[in-house]
User: Fold these one by one.
Assistant:
Number 1:
Amino acid sequence: MPSMRPCPLPHSGAGLIAFPLALLAAWPVATTAAPLVANTLSACTQAITASWDISLATCNAGALQDFTFTPVSTGSGISTIRNAQAGLCIAATGTGSGAFVELASCASSQAGQRFQTVALAGGSLVQVKLASANVCLTAPTQLNQVAFSVKTCNTGDANQAWRLSAPAPTPAPTPAPAAVETSFTVSTAEIANPERGMYTWAADNLLLW
């Protein structure tokens, strides 16, 4: 069944010559909502509910940037990618290289919504691959574009490298140490000494007596 996208955008038919996908370990994904971050721009995938699209945007911890990988069955390693705020899933409009990617009503039986994550060398990044074809989710090259697509999986394509969490916030600067008081008020006192009588003590003249 085709997606119920009200305003289809032109789909790019351009393919991409790439190396075959390396056989790498599957990446275990969390089933809680988290940002889907395009590593090359450190930007977050964002749902656009008005047009059923996804775009790249500056990460802002908003609900439209939270996506949940929901397994289609236990142990399958295949998931749909759903944005709860929109109530829609990421969907490829085809399984060939260059197919456009949009949002659609969630349907785990649809080939364009069934994704696997494959760990890239180093382990901190993944490719998001269609389970039924050797094509991977590919980010636009600029912010605020809706030109998401699936293209032939290529471990050397920086636009296919994803992080499944938001970038760490910039640490707050270390505050300057508080000033230490170094001046004192001089005071005196008369102290009784049974052997020597009264002794005048001053804070700036600590003499034994």
Note: The domain at 37-163 is CATH 2.80.10.50 (Trefoil (Acidic Fibroblast Growth Factor, subunit A)).
Number 2:
Amino acid sequence: MLSLTSKAESISCILASVVLKTLLSTAFFVKFIK
């Protein structure tokens, strides 16, 4: 059984990776546009 803290940690890790991927793809997109 996962505790609430480990669930929150995994969720925050997933959110952080998604945000990083979005920022990276946005940066590449802007570079290609310019």
Note: The CA atoms of residues 20 and 26 lie 10 Å apart.
Number 3:
Amino acid sequence: MRREYLQFVESLSCEVKVCSTIEEALVQCVVSLPNILILDDSFSVYEVSVLVRVFQEKKDWQTVSMFVVGNVEKHLFPKETVFVQSIHELVNSLKDVFDTLYS
């Protein structure tokens, strides 16, 4: 699935980061804050709570559109978080974000 994300985002003009761990997501955001952050794995409650806490504390990070693929502790994420179960759902959700970004 990760390979499909990368192929899809190669031609985009906004910055998209695909991460399979919470640690990787935090590092990617510190290095270069993306427009879109895709998390493509299952995470522990602790990891999710750390990520959400960091995003809540850093105001500039609140502009990142976050997509979560897979089964996670959905109730721990902000209500704006998009959860997807398939590539088709992800592509449709990303299209909505791009329509908003470039309209």
Note: Strands lie at 16-19, 36-39, 65-69, 82-84.
Number 4:
Amino acid sequence: MAQNNDIAKPVRRYTRVDFAALRAFLNGVQLDLLVDRYYSEDDMLDRGWESARDVHSWLEVMSQDMADRALKTYPTIAGILADSRRSGRWSKPVIDFLTVNAEKDLSRPFPTDSISVWFKPRLADALKGVGLASLADLKRYIESAGLGWWRPIPRVGAGKARVIEHWLTQNSQFIGALTLEASLPAVTNQVTVGMDTGLPVPLERIGGITPTLNGSQGRNRNTSFCLISARNDLEAIQAYLYRFRGREKTLRSYRKELERFLLWCVLERRVAMSSVLTDECEAYKNFIADIPADWCGKNPQIPRLSQRWRPFAGQLQPESQRYAIQAIRTFFEWLVDVRYLLGNPWKTVADPSTIHREMPMQIEKALPQQLWEELANQGGLLDRVCDGEIFNAIRRPKTSSLPAQFRLARAAILLIGFTGIRREEAARATRNKLKPVPGRNLWQLTVVGKRNKERTVFFPPRVIDALKAHWLDRGHDFSDPHQELALIAPIVIAPTRSACAKHEVEGDDILSGRGFAPDSLGRLVKSSLLRLADDHEAPISPEERHLLRSVAPHALRHTFATVSTAKQMPPDVLQQLLGHASLTTTSIYVHAQRQRSLDEVAKLYKG
């Protein structure tokens, strides 16, 4: 028989949170309050704790460990410790004696430690919300984003950020030295881009371009009457982007591509944008296929006004390269149409080659019909989580609002999944656009989609029941059909000025009922389904857990479309419900035919 050479006794590791909890425990703080204050759900799950009783056992053993440690060094205090344990009364000097020195020795952090081990639950949740799982993740994030690293993180202000930085610095011997560099000042610090400019800067920081490179004398400029007042290339870009005012998503997409190309022309190629010929266009196509490291940022969360900002977040996928070339070509076509340029040098440049995908919209991300029904049907997974029947997902003693948060997520998931509306449309949907369909067991909702086109979608009372439960949590009256309140709105807000200004009503405990930003609604859906997928008590297979971990709101839109197609909904009806401009786009969902083809081929070779 092989010998077991692992003879070392496992050593309990106590964290700063444990020592703070032990102090409260020895001071007689009620156990439920102690758990609520010091231990998050993630922390309890990581340690295998199922209830407050497990925390009580942990702290009992910890107090004995501290007493044994103290007795080894100071055996004369045995009587004092025995009296304290017998009476259950621990004086402050005794508690300090037990914990202060031990805390210094035993509460050493490691880079791989979870955020929730070292920071209070509310702060840990905020940091995890932006993808920071470990102390190493947090350190890397701060170093790459600079002094303003905390701005995108809810519930973290400048003061708390400095405290976190101080804590990391204090523990640098265990997790490495924190290196912080100053961030660039704000947008008022504009620069003239040209030959001597060191680093690329975003459009809003470009005050001008060196005269020889600004395009005012570009070799492709049209000298006859121009239909825009732009004097140079920067102003031409600004004129083009102005066309997309009010369409923020489209505006950001075009700004990103034109900004990159302008900076490449001036800083890399040393040529005015209005002087580029087909040779330069081909060179740019090669450039975005292999982007130099100094043009790529280390962190996509870096603010645009930071000195660490770069035009690219990393290497582009072939599809992204193709989109970039098409966006720039379209821009140049417009420049020719308005007679700013004589010709379009991109006209003869081929798009980067990409794989012609069988399903270009990645509708394979749609949930299988069976999993969707298990999730969304009456009494399904979402209902059981909201009712707190069986899942650890709901057992979070520190947050009394969590059941309401799940009811909020359920309402959002069902609204998108039963209608196929986009994330942006769901975020902007309001109560006054919702009404029952006469003579049918259906409701209808009018939304404004792409190209500012209105359309009406229909859904069953199942969704209304979820919305009513969500509105009850909000304290709003769902029965009033004339309200312009958002169908889906936060019930808990971050204590930031912008959030308070948007969602709080002065002198009222009830929030304003204004909706989510689309990105925030997306994060809500993803985080809720991720929590469900990670719940070991949820009765779903490993494959289904994997699918739920990758679900985004758009996957729910795909789910609606694929389920509808499988149930023989006519393509033209589905096109109208999804808001597609072309029936060709909708026909992609006839992917359901692929399954039927597989079934028929299987019959062919059966036996």
Note: The chain has 27 helices and five strands.
